[in-house]
Amino acid sequence: MLSIEPVTPGPLPRSAILNTEPTERSDAARNRELLLDAAEALVREQGADAVTMDAVAKRAGVGKGTVFRRFGSRSGLMHALLDQSEKKLQAAYMFGPPPLGPGAPPVERLVAFGRARLNGIEVEGDVIREASGGADRYSGAPYNVTKTHVSLLLRQAEAEGNIWLLADTLMAAIDAGLVLHQTRVLGYTLEQIGDYWESLVRRVTARTAQ
Question: Are 209 and 113 in a shared domain?
Answer without folding.
Answer: yes
